[in-house]
Amino acid sequence: MTEQTKQAVPMKERTDHTLLEVTGLGKHFSLGTGPTTHAIGDVSLSVADGEFVAIVGPSGCGKTTLLRCLSGLLRPDQGQVRYAGEPVNRVPGDLAIVFQEYNRSLFPWLTVRRNVEFGLTDLPRAVRRERAREALERVRLEGFADHFPWQLSGGMQQRVAIARAIALHPRVLLMDEPFASVDAQTRTALEEMTASISAALGLTTLLITHDIDEAIFMADRVVVLSARPSRVVAELQVDISRPRDELAVKALPEFSELRRRIHDLIGASPAAEA
Amino acid sequence: MIGLSSLGPKSADAGATGQTRARRPAGTGARWAGAVARSAVGLVSLVAAYELLRLVGVLPSASAPGVPSIGSALASGLADGTLAGPLGDTAQAWALGLALATAIGLPLGVVTGLSRWADSVTGVAVEFLRPVPAVALIPVGIVVFGLQIGLQVFLVAFATVWPVLIGCRHGVRTVDPLLIDSARALGQSRARVLYRVIVPASVPAFATGLRTAAGIGVVVAVAVEIVSGSPGLGYHLNSAQQSGRVTDAFAAVLLAGLFGVAVDLAARAAENRLAGWQRHTTEGRR
Amino acid sequence: MTTTEINRVTGPGAVRAKARGGFRGMRRRVTALALGWGFVALLLGLWEMAGRADTTALLPPFSVVATELVDLITGDALMTDIMPSLARALAGFVIGSLVGVVLGVALGWWRGLEPWCRSALEFLRAVPAPALLPLAILAFGASDTTRVGVIALGAVWPVLLNTTDGVRRVEAGYIDSARVYARGGRAELLRRVVLPAATPQIMAGLRVGLALSLIMMVISEMIASSSGLGNLILRAQRLYALDQMYAGVLLLGVLGWLLTLLFSAVERRALAWFYGLKGQDR
């Protein structure tokens, strides 16, 4: 049992209320008069309030593009994204993103604390400090508030990114392959930390990953995308009870079954490009 | 070392980014023509702005001639040699000075890049000499060389040796150790590693340093001519100014600018040829 | 994993060491400095000997020049020549830098401007700044304003172009983060993210601008002034007061060196984060 789960933090009640709704999303890129890349073909999915959804797919299938469209960073060419019933035109105020490359998204000229406080300028100073302190505590980096991000290891920097996200007190957390640039041992610790934070704060979380194990371990539901132009191939429910301990869960037969099925689904979809 | 960090890959003379490698997919002819058209509009606007300033009086119309008259003065000056001659003098001084700077700066740069010992010995001296403005040495140069081309060559060389030296040094210093290790692992001797790995890998930094040097060289050559009266565009400009031949003065400046543009384009082209490959590697970030 | 395990893998032990320092680093640096200064002393010694041996009086020994230098600093020249020179150079540098940064930010920010302005800017940049001096004298006469103006004109280009470059090349990831976490408009984006991120490149431009300011100061004093260090040096050469000439040149070198040193110190403070960041990237 991880320490985090022993904390007496009330879990937000999960409702069946759909928070994020994607219908018929399509996105393509073209360079002038060159060939067009159809990143996303036709993707539809919905995410309920408080749900943890993982999106997996083969390399290059447009997962990052999908996340950017969902968050409002990118305008899709077809289809629509609705957040809390409203169409998404810009990044919603209570949506936070953890990007894959921490060294290109955390600001190197700010200390860890300032980075975490970055999104909180509307709040009075005392509140800002308190939120930052609380967030850093959750990711176990309280002692490093006055360091600079580049003084920390990769895993720690990603934790700072997570702290920055949760300091916002967001409703939705989007994560774009957050642990891809981090070594394997650290990754496990970060996965467990993220899962427990998400549960404790009642966040609706969307995780993009190419790591099938990670997807199954962390999510309530796994959405499988095809290769480019991507569409939803399957959605699998992960009926493993929480809290989940890494080693125990991975030994479960359900886990292997899911892993095998997802693996087959990803492998079976025809690769449009190499 | 103080200040050397600013002349690394993020070269202080960054300016506009270099031309992209010419691998033209079909259909970009129209786009290219569009770019040229827009640049032309930019230049025309510049000319228009100048004329406007003359009109409004910010630029006194007596001493700021209209563009057409400058243009014709330039054309006739080139045709009858009164401008072409000085241009040749300046170009010659520039080229010789740059060659001298390369002859000194390249080996010195390589040596100080390879040997920490050599770097330490020369370090303080370089830091002292580098910030000395070459133009401050004009009087010294006059004493030593008189008013001949040697003066300009010496001063251009003095000003331009630093970017070349530092560029080479930086290039040698920042060769990916992995490349060296691979070569050694393949059984290459130290000497072969030097000229088969280190030198080619440092060519891009040298090319960038040379480009910086080329630009500085033009500025110094003209400056020396203006101050000392040695032959060249600067001298021509100065005498025109002193005898009040305003249009000739402007034509000379225009020609100097065109020369500077030509030098810059040539230097960029050379840099692209020498260093183009670097753009395609992960180390190509400037 | 327990807390302690997490911290072992990702905790204080994993924090990367700061600047490579310690005793060995210090000793290495001191040796390097000693070698460097030793070489300089050697060169000065050669100068001294060559000066003493010289019969043509074209090369005074270093000691004579040094004495003359001290006289320059402690005498009238300080007020009549040295200070005005410095004042002009710095004034021109500051004006040119301000204009360069403001225009550079504008050009970098509104990317649409670039294809239109590119050729015009490249041409203007290529015009050698010294060549503008006679033109300025023709148009506006030889006054302090003209001189400072031409110095500024020399300094503006590297600052402008580097600022544009720096603003344009801000890491896309920073912009993305700002779009998610900074809820203000573009002004906030500029102030909180773009400018800090572009500062290293801007500093590089300022450094070149400073060097150019000094060059332009010297030239403007040599051909269009009756005071200032540049003028002093040229005057001394014409009067064959070679001691004073060399002393003036040496003084200029020292001033240039001091200003560069000062600039580096300021740069180090402003860019401490950048050096740290680059150190880690090695």
UniProtKB/TrEMBL annotation, chain A:
The record's InterPro entries line, in alphabetical order, gives: AAA+_ATPase, ABC_transporter-like_ATP-bd, ABC_transporter-like_CS, ABC_transporter_ATP-bind, P-loop_NTPase
Sorted UniProt keywords: ATP-binding, Nucleotide-binding, Transport
Query: Which residue numbers delimit the ABC transporter domain?
Result: 20-252
The question of whether Amino-acid biosynthesis is a record keyword is answered with no
List the Pfam families hit by this protein, alphabetically.
ABC_tran (PF00005)
SMART domains annotated for this entry?
AAA
- SUPFAM superfamilies documented for this protein: P-loop containing nucleoside triphosphate hydrolases
What name does the UniProt record give this protein?
A: ABC transporter
Origin species, per record, is: Streptomyces djakartensis
> Source taxonomy lineage?
Bacteria, Bacillati, Actinomycetota, Actinomycetes, Kitasatosporales
Automatic annotation (TrEMBL), chain B:
Q: Where in the cell is it found?
A: Cell membrane
Region Disordered: what ranges? 1-26
Instruction: Please state the protein's primary subcellular location.
Output: membrane
Judging by the UniProt lineage, the source's domain of life is Bacteria
Q: Which ranges are annotated Low complexity under compositional bias?
A: 12-26
One Pfam family name is BPD_transp_1
Domain ABC transmembrane type-1 intervals: 87-267
Listed InterPro entries: MetI-like (IPR000515), MetI-like_sf (IPR035906)
**PROSITE patterns referenced in this protein's UniProt entry, alphabetically:** ABC_TM1 (PS50928)
User: In the UniProt record, does the keyword S-adenosyl-L-methionine occur?
Assistant: no
**Which keywords describe this protein according to UniProt?**
Cell membrane, Membrane, Transmembrane, Transmembrane helix, Transport
Membrane protein topology class: Multi-pass membrane protein
Q: What are the TM regions of this chain, as residue ranges?
A: 93-116, 128-147, 216-237, 249-267
The family classification in the record reads: Belongs to the binding-protein-dependent transport system permease family.
Q: In its UniProt entry, what is this protein called?
A: ABC transporter permease
Give the organism the record lists.
Streptomyces djakartensis
From TrEMBL, chain C:
List the subcellular locations: Cell membrane
What the entry lists under InterPro entries is as follows: MetI-like, MetI-like_sf
Give the bilayer topology. Answer: Multi-pass membrane protein
Q: Which controlled-vocabulary keywords does the entry list?
A: Cell membrane, Membrane, Transmembrane, Transmembrane helix, Transport
Where is each ABC transmembrane type-1 domain found? Answer: 82-267
The primary location reported for this protein is membrane
Any Pfam family hit: BPD_transp_1
Q: Where are the transmembrane segments?
A: 30-50, 89-110, 210-234, 246-266
Name the SUPFAM superfamilies on file: MetI-like
In terms of CDD domains, this protein maps to: TM_PBP2
Q: Which family does it belong to?
A: Belongs to the binding-protein-dependent transport system permease family.
Protein's recorded name:
Nitrate ABC transporter permease
Q: What is the scientific name of the source organism? A: Streptomyces djakartensis
**Annotated gene:** ssuC
